[in-house]
Amino acid sequence: MAHSAVSQVAVAVPVGSDISLRRSVFKRNSISFGDMSWASTLSLELKSRNAQKSNRYIACMSVQQASKSKIAVSPLELEMAKDPPLNLFKPKEPYTAAIVSVERLVGPKAPGETCHIVIDHGGNVPYWEGQSYGVIPPGENPKKLGSPHNVRLYSIASSRYGDSFDGKTASLCVRRAVYYDPETGKEDPSKSGVCSNFLCNSKPGDKVQITGPSGKIMLLPEDNPNANHIMIATGTGVAPFRGYLRRMFMEDVTFKFRGLAWLFLGVANNDSLLYDDEFTKYLQDYPDHFRYDRALSREQKNKSGGKMYVQDKIEEYSDEIFKLLDEGAHIYFCGLKGMMPGIQETLKRVAEERGENWDEKLSLLKKNKQWHVEVY
Question: What is the pTM of this model?
Fold first, then answer.
């Protein structure tokens, strides 16, 4: 969709409601964690929750609500667990969830299609910001006849409360993978990405098998609310950072963020920007705590006259970035793995220009757990 001053973000409402919604009210789940593990908690509640799965949801919430008046979330018990949930559902026994909505995120001039997909897990597959779900597309694995497809991992693009703020949904940011024959220039559907096309073609109510949640490297550290966070994303790699930022700036949660969150997002052009209205709103409402820099490779030029990539933006602000890192800031990278060589080369060159040894600096960042990378 074309970007406008106000975009729509998914929020769940029971089907059949005659209310014209800006925000809906949900019955709070009664969950008691105490000292129980995620697995034991789920085993006790899975049956009762599944009985409620007949309720389906429809999306709609204005990003205007991402304002200084933060949104109430539930169940607040999701704040109480000391450790993140991990691998609650595995490939041999996945959880069957349901598609809530599929929305095109990009404008007509974007190369390719990227969709925002909301999945109803009924509260049975909880997760933390920065984790991933596995998705098993329907059908048979062509390389293992009689076996299901392999699991595809997707970074979750929502906070633990989901776009409905009730802990029952998760959102994915998925780019449709298509293949064009280099000789004919025509699309070859037989070589298209199985899982991304399944998700982007899904309709509300369709079943989807999910695994996980998985991953710890991209978890948002919350021990110090004054800490600074530098987020570097290309394309759909912005997914985990959307979850971070909703937790920092949109939701009324126990984590009271007082540091600086700085997002660098690299995409092809303005029509390819993802969640831009949300991020712009944070910029307006929290100018002392949020910075947002875009690198549009097909529309902007770097200082040498070449295409503008995220590493060029990093170089542009290198003095500030290195100062923040020296002061203990966390830095995160998420996106296609091809992004990292250029970024590493830039950081090394900048470090050398500053009289620093990059290899030693990188080793220290990793030792201090300030360096977080998830590429695919």
Answer: 0.81
